[in-house]
Design goal:
Blueprint: H1 19-56, H2 62-107, E1 116-122, E2 127-134, E3 137-143, E4 155-159, E5 162-165, H3 173-193, E6 199-204, E7 209-212, E8 220-222, H4 224-233, H5 240-256
Parallel strand pairs: 3-6, 4-7, 6-8
Antiparallel strand pairs: 1-2, 2-3, 4-5
Helix pairs in contact: 1-2
Length: 264
């Protein structure tokens, strides 16, 4: 009888930067894209086989063969269309994933300064890209990665109407998203620790020049390296004991809610 086994790891691992997006990419490739590839191949083989049977062994009603052939062509066209649509989506997800990884690597610098860094914390129908806990406070970081033009201006403008990427129509959704993530994290920390601590929401744009025209600093809009300077210059609001306690509780929450089968 085969002996039962178990993992040698006592605790589940913390999550990696961009892990949710990477899992979604794998799901789209391994599940959806594969289905769209295999289905037309199966129908094509089945259709060819029936035509061969018709000419060599048994006579099949021509109208049935024509219908089967038309059906195979239509399904194949549909699958090709869906595959190209998936390719575009996967490219966008890869861009977002790589952006989160790059920002995560930039934030690792803060570990040497005594900060605790957490990535890809799963919330209620969303995820927090990065959370930084240190004596200067708690920071919730959202990464927005946009493709840049090969030449010319690469500027993101923030004003009261929203975020404009190289002069595009302003999008204000990021304001409510950042505020919602801040509120969720404050509630979660309060539930886990019994401590009410304000969270500073941050939105970073890798590789872009950020022109923030807002006087309100309730949300920071920065380039990743600029965030490091902002945090280091911030006033100390937490003692080391509180930082360690909040970090330990947050770490345990992440491990307890780790989902190996996300998107599977």
């Amino acid at each position: 009888m085969k002996k039962s086994t178990k993992s040698p790891l006592k605790n589940k691992p913390l999550r990696l930067p961009g892990q949710s997006l990477n899992n979604e990419i794998r799901f789209l490739i391994d599940d959806k894209a594969l289905n769209y590839i295999l289905l037309p191949i199966f129908l094509l083989v089945f259709t060819i086989w029936n035509w061969l049977l018709h000419y060599q062994i048994i006579k099949i009603t021509p109208s049935s063969l024509k219908f089967l052939t038309l059906f195979t062509i239509l399904i194949s066209i549909y699958c090709v269309f869906r595959i190209f649509k998936l390719i575009r989506k996967i490219k966008r997800l890869k861009l977002g994933r790589d952006g989160e990884i790059a920002v995560g690597q930039t934030l690792e610098y803060l570990r040497n300064k005594g900060f605790r860094i957490f990535h890809d914390i799963i919330g209620e129908g969303f995820n927090l890209d990065h959370v930084i806990v240190g004596e200067q406070g708690i920071f919730c970081v959202e990464t927005k990665t946009y493709s840049k033009p090969s030449k010319g201006q690469c500027k993101i403008t923030i004003n009261h109407e929203g975020i404009s990427v190289n002069g595009s129509k302003p999008n204000s959704k990021i304001f409510s998203q950042a505020k919602a993530q801040k509120a969720w994290l404050e509630r979660k920390i309060s539930l886990l620790t019994g401590i009410n601590v304000p969270v500073q929401p941050v939105v970073v744009f890798p590789g872009w020049f950020v022109d923030n025209k807002l006087d309100d600093n309730s949300i920071w809009f920065l380039e990743p390296k600029g965030l490091l300077k902002y945090i280091e210059k911030a006033k100390v609001t937490l003692d080391k004991r509180t930082v360690k306690f909040i970090s330990n509780q947050l770490s345990q929450f992440i491990r307890d809610n780790y989902d190996y089968n996300q998107y599977y």
